[in-house]
Design goal:
The structure is a homodimer. With about 300 residues, the first copy, chain A, is α/β, with parallel strands linked by helices. Chain A folds into 2 domains: about 5-165, 3-Layer(aba) Sandwich (Rossmann fold); about 175-295, N-(1-d-carboxylethyl)-l-norvaline Dehydrogenase, domain 2, CATH 1.10.1040.10. Chain A has 12 helices and 8 strands. Chain A has helices spanning about 10-20, 35-50, 65, 80-95, 110-115, 150-160, 175-195, 200-215, 220-225, 230-250, 255-270, 275-295, and strands spanning about 5, 25-30, 60, 70-75, 100-105, 125-130, 135-140, 165. In chain A, helix 1 packs across helix 2 (about 35-50) and helix 9 crosses helix 10 (about 230-250). The longest helix of chain A is centred in the last third of the chain and has 21 residues, at about 275-295. At the A-B interface, strand 8, helix 7, helix 8, helix 9 and helix 10 of A face strand 8, helix 7, helix 8, helix 9 and helix 10 of B.
Chain lengths: ~300, ~300
Amino acid sequence: MTVAVVGCGVIGRSWIRVFTRAGLPVRVWDVAPDAVRQALEWHAAVAARDARGGTTPTGVTSLEEALGDVQWVQESGPERLPEKQALFARMDAAAGPDAVLASSTSTFDMTEIARGLPGASRCVVAHPVNPPHVVPAVEVLGGSSTSADVVSRACDFLASVGQTPVLLRRYVPGFLLNRMQAALVREAISLLDGGVADADAIDAVIRDGLGLRWALMGPFGVANTNADGGAREYFTRYGASFRWLMDDLGGTPTMDPALIERIGEGVDAIYPGVSHEALREWRDRMVERITQLKRQDHP
Amino acid sequence: MTVAVVGCGVIGRSWIRVFTRAGLPVRVWDVAPDAVRQALEWHAAVAARDARGGTTPTGVTSLEEALGDVQWVQESGPERLPEKQALFARMDAAAGPDAVLASSTSTFDMTEIARGLPGASRCVVAHPVNPPHVVPAVEVLGGSSTSADVVSRACDFLASVGQTPVLLRRYVPGFLLNRMQAALVREAISLLDGGVADADAIDAVIRDGLGLRWALMGPFGVANTNADGGAREYFTRYGASFRWLMDDLGGTPTMDPALIERIGEGVDAIYPGVSHEALREWRDRMVERITQLKRQDHP
């Protein structure tokens, strides 16, 4: 299996590492040659710190060269539909017949991206969490023309390189991940905006409370461990309370500049004097450790 | 500092361990003497497995004996308001003048629980996550008569025994924790109910995706690491997308028996053949390990 990474910004460069540490040959292309150079430098630094080793990716200067002999193409270009469509048309023309064309899009329906392409049946969404070499989940869904076999092969391939494929049966805006994130963010902002608590308190309930479980189990799994009789007993016993509380939740916040500034000040107070870069490095380092713990001990 | 645990079901018995491992003398009382015996047995087994050691709790046969000389009372009785009010009246009469009376309630406003009590100013909510000896966050809020000093002492005391106090400025139903949980659960059930994905996929996006971050940072902290310019840049750039998506989120599900059965079948498929008890033990063991990792390496 040989792989091409098309578009190598923050997401694309991280995909390179997913594939090289799985031992696969990787071709790297971007419309900007500088981006390829920078991604390969980033990759070399990350790989040097990682005992798992892996292959050395190859930068190439044309899309055709990148796709000539590969079986998986991971596209991570800009999130603008006409550009995505044009790129997929070029990729479909350049790739060999057995290649799967996967998009990292967080936004678009593959039905739209691949509309009218001769190879629409081999086009699939594979939306990662940022950065994919740290966070395993990848949302997988086909468009209306995608073959069931391609969706199934996509899940198998992603699992084979150590990711967690998550299958969606149909397109919804935001997929699963950004919808559930938006649900939590909406209530968090609503609580801040309503003066119920400050940003640090709202975050603390997640990071030292609910989030400790959610690193291990999703909401259904958590419900299942919250009553001796499992999820059925839990939702039967608390169903009415849940409905009442769900109806009482906050609505969509304004997101106006004053509110965003309040959020910003709230976050400043949580991490005084710590740079975003240092926080992100800590986050990624710790996510890798938690993922490792879960590989060593699972139910 | 001496502590009384009043009511020792699943939450109360776990509080005993929070206090004993902090080295405090603990008196334990429940309206049912059998519950005291069972809680002390449970505590002995948990303490025996925990290298941190601690004090040995004392079971007592009357509320008055439990409260005679303590500075903190942690009440974890049934979640029924008239019983809670009656219990707080007895506790207020029995406790010495410098004792704080804290309730583990997840539901009620301390304004209601302590209404009319001579010692209403020393009554405070300290709502833990279950079980508190594993999960650190504790929501703290006063009622309309609670003194600011008592709220502040409650936060200091909970921090001194190794918990994470989370201060609410005012009462809202569900506090922070159950509101944010309900927000996530609502969208998760809505996605299942709408046939977008199965329970395992929905859970996987959390446990192998968003939840790995939420064990480290709340939604504001995560936003802060998702753009080079921090939370202000993130919410400015994505504010409109977030609003659009928030308006598209699912509503409150029916929670009817057929839906609950579908959830139950979905959970069965995630953990085939694994008992709820084994899952809960794994969850708690792993939460302790993650919490330990965070104590060793923090931003």
